[in-house]
Design brief:
Layout: E1 11-17, E2 32-38, E3 44-45, E4 50-52, E5 61-62, E6 68-69, E7 74-79, E8 99-104, E9 113-119, E10 127-131, E11 136-141, E12 149-150, E13 160-165, E14 176-180, E15 187-188, E16 193-194, E17 205-206, E18 212-213, E19 218-221
Antiparallel strand pairs: 1-2, 1-10, 2-7, 3-6, 4-5, 4-8, 8-9, 10-11, 11-12, 13-14, 14-19, 15-18, 16-17
Length: 222
Amino acid sequence: TWVVNTSLPTVRLNEVLARNDTAVNHNGTFPDVVELYNEGAAPVDLSGLRLTDDPSAPNQFTFPPGTTLNPSNYLAVYANNNDGTPGFHLGFALNQEGDGVYLYDSSSSGGALLDSVQFGLQAPDLSLGRFGNRGDWSLCQPTFGATNTAQPLGNATGLRINEWLASGTLPFVDDFIELYNPDALPIPLGGLYLTDQPIGAPARHRIADLSYIAGHGFAGFI
């Protein structure tokens, strides 16, 4: 048995840029960016809707009264502190090594979780975008304010273990493993495993979904 709540807002998360080195220049700054999209046929009142990167603190940002999003329109908000530049500023940044974005309904409407995305290690200047009717997420070229454009990806079979440290001392006190991507294209790491016991325990550490390594890039794991 299904109960369909047709009163929920038709707004959804559509694109997330958690490592904005040079891709999106916002009045001389390079903040993380989160994009919302109204997939409905009528304007959505965003007043009281909330955004956060921590489900235990859903009130990190609340849209002010009178904020609306027209049908088939996009709204980019900036994941940084209010620095005097235009637009909505969330008051928190995203962790490029792994984080999440959560969209909640207003407290007065019950405060339900409307949408969310969790991700791992991010490649510089490439965003995560939503594709297809099922809402699948994948790496994309930043296209805020327009239809998402998928980023071509390389094959994980080309990845190489490039460096490791097994007995840390200052200044590197933690053991680490470094991967290298010799391909010019970024490669998805999500769902791959790292282990020191290939026989008996090959899946000791599963790399988080929506994790990527840049083309000719490196990724370190403590």
